[in-house]
Amino acid sequence: MADGKRYSILIVDDEQIVRESLTKWFLQDGYRVEAAENANDALKKMDKGPWDVVILDIKMPGMSGMELLKRLREIDRTSQVIMATAFASVETAVQALKDGAFDYVTKPIDPDHLSHLVTNAIQQRALEEQNTSLRQQINEITAANEIVGDSPQIKRVIDLSLTVAQTDTTVMIRGESGTGKELIARTIHANSERRYFPVITVNCGAVAETLLESELFGHERGAFTGAQYRRKGKFEMADGGTIFLDEIGTVSPKMQVELLRVIETKQFTRVGGNEQITSDFRVICATNRNLEAAIKDGSFREDLYYRLNVFSISIPPLRERRMDIPLLAHFFVKKYAAAMNKAVKEVSSDAMDLLVRYDWPGNVRELENVVERAMVLADPPSIRPADLPFQNVTKREGPKDDTLAAVERQHIETVLGLTHWNITRSAEILDIDRVTLYNKIAKYGLKKP
Amino acid sequence: MVPIRIVPLAPVNEELVRTVAGPVGSVFRTEVTVEPPLRSAMDRTYDISRGQYNSTDLIRMLLERYPAGPEKVLGVAGADLFVPVLTYVFGEAQLDGTAAVMSVYRLDDVLYGLEADPVKLFERTLKECVHELGHTFGLLHCRDYDCAMHASTTVDDIDLKGAGLCPSCLRQIGMQP
Questions:
Q1: Using the beta-carbon criterion (under 8 Å), do B87 and A15 form an inter-chain contact?
Q2: Do the chains contact at A21 and B85, CB–CB below 8 Å?
Q3: Among A1, A108, A112, beta carbon nearest to B84
Q4: Does B66 contact A at CB distance below 8 Å?
Q5: Which of A13, A21, A83 to mutate to test the interface with B (most CBs of B within 10 A)?
Q6: pLDDT tens per residue across span A20-52
Q7: Same domain, A235 and A304
Q8: Which residue of B has its CA nearest to A113?
Q9: pLDDT per position as a tens digit, A167-212
Q10: Which residues of chain A are within 8 Å of residue B141 when distances are taken between CB atoms?
Q11: Are A69 and A125 in a shared domain?
Q12: How far is residue A54's CA from residue B56's CA, in Å, rounded to a whole number?
């Protein structure tokens, strides 16, 4: 009773004198106590629970204590059951513990032992409850951000993610920039058995080649100039959890060899060290590169490709699932309305029409940025076409060929269309000066419609 | 505060019983009388298979002799007491009732192979008398380590606590700390 909470005890024994003695004993200790004379009575009294501790006689007429133990554990697994018997045997004690009893005592019971036993049982229950509560909190904290979308394409991606989450398979996520590859990786981790351990993200494209080895494997003190302390690498930090290797297609051939070895053996040494480190991690990687083409041109190792591409998930670009755009737009409006404390609640139908018709080369990330910007400009309660960076969207046609000039011409034409040929505004969007834009308009022979 | 009757349950060290009566009265700020020793009670509660005396039966007998009235009745035994499910008890009481019993048997260091210590025996006896009477006044076990109502299942536990009641327990029985 150290924490002042009133704990409860259910006593199940067919002998009246035992029920009365124990009831009196525990009442004086401040517990809430009830007694049951047989299994049926005990099962009825489970409704009055939850009981912190159940003291259960093994030998009773009708359903035995051992049988009742199983039933009680089915009803409430958190109650701690102490089995009591006048006829002790090693077999029944072992069986009771196997069936989930907290402990086993022989009658008559030493009062000092009984007192400690009940205290320990209550502490055990408190720890189990705390454990459940903490796991719940971790689930809430680690739960990946919501994947928004109702299109068959995104539903398929979610289904695949949840299916593969239950396994320890290596996953490769493919998709254009801004489609949400990291979100899918986090969803897989958050729904896997590894969710109570970290998910470590490494953006392979953002780390300089010379630093990537140290970043991934860690380093010992003095391993190189500036290595003043021993540092754990990402693979070591991901022990028990998941390592997410983003932009895997940018890794150098030398590092590809190292990665292949580590992913296969789960063992490595820190830079400048000799100690063999073992780490239990799951690999999820992502790329927007065409790795098959990279294998053909020799810039990506085929063996690493097959090691990583065990289960592949392709996220469709936003333009291929336009029906999700209104859902996503509303989601972001709600998000930024709360963040900005602004009473913007919706996107007007005209503005939504523009959003749906736009091709979103930057995918969901671009949509989020556009909505955030519009939220700043919008007069509550809705976002209107004037709040968007484009007011006149014509469906974008792909360039006739893949040359840089063709892509540039196409892009300039699109931006000019969006701004109604406002040269100053277009130059701002393209991040070039107006003279350069005029020169390019002349070069490509673009004409105002 | 209601008066208290202490009944020596012979065979018991009657002088020890008389000695604790005064301090018990001081703790509960009430009149304490020591009754003549009750000689027949113990035999009728003896359990031959355990070689101990049934404390629940002793309480029943005390209630037969001293029917529920305004007084609290405490039987003090010299022999070892038990309730059927436990190996022994230092005492037993009716919670918020009339009667209680306690035993000095396990409070004597001689039982543990040590030299007799009359002072310690007196202190332990006083603490357990206060403890069991406290239950008859409706007090539960107390979290205060220094309070006589703190639960004790060994003599070491008894030695650690005090003979008086903590302010919280005093207030619960309507006394100013």
A1: no
A2: yes
A3: A108
A4: no
A5: A21
A6: 999 999 999 999 999 999 999 999 998 887 899
A7: yes
A8: B153
A9: 999 999 999 989 999 999 999 998 899 988 888 999 988 887 778 8
A10: 1, 28-30
A11: yes
A12: 24
Contact: A21, B95; criterion CB under 8 Å: no
Whether residue B32 lies within 8 A of chain A, CB to CB, comes out as no
Verify that A118 and A49 share a domain, yes or no: yes
ipTM (interface pTM): 0.87
Confidence (pTM): 0.59
The domains of chain B are located at 4-170
List Cα–Cα distances, A362 to A227, A315, B86, in angstroms.
38, 13, 76
Is CATH 3.30.390.10 what the domain over B4-170 is classified as, yes or no? Answer: no
Q: Is B82 on the interface with A (CB under 8 A)?
A: yes
Contacts of A363 by beta carbon, 8 Å cutoff, 6+ apart: A175, A176, A177, A178, A179, A180, A317, A318
Taken as a whole, chain A contains a residue count of 449
> CATH no. for residue A49?
3.40.50.2300
CATH number at residue A244: 3.40.50.300
Q: Residues of chain B whose pLDDT is less than 50?
A: none
User: What's the total number of domains in chain A?
Assistant: 4
Rounded to 10 deg, the angle between the A16-28 and A111-142 helix axes is 70
Relative to beta strand A231-232, strand B72-77 is unpaired
Q: Which of A316, A348, A372 is the last residue of a domain?
A: A316
Q: Supply the residues of B annotated as catalytic.
A: 132
Q: What is the pLDDT of residues A44-103, one digit of tens each?
A: 998 887 899 999 998 888 888 899 999 998 888 889 999 998 877 788 888 889 999 999
Say yes or no: A420 contacts chain B, CB-CB below 8 A.
Answer: no
**Residue A375 and residue A342 share a domain:** yes
| Nearest residue of chain B to residue A18 (CA atoms) | B85
> What range does the domain containing A434 cover?
404-444
The verdict on A21 and A92 lying in the same domain is yes
CA-to-CA dists, residue A421 to A69, A247, A373, A412, B106, angstroms? 80, 36, 21, 10, 103
- Is residue A56 assigned to a domain? yes
- Judged by CB atoms closer than 8 Å, whether chains meet at B85 and A18 is answered as yes
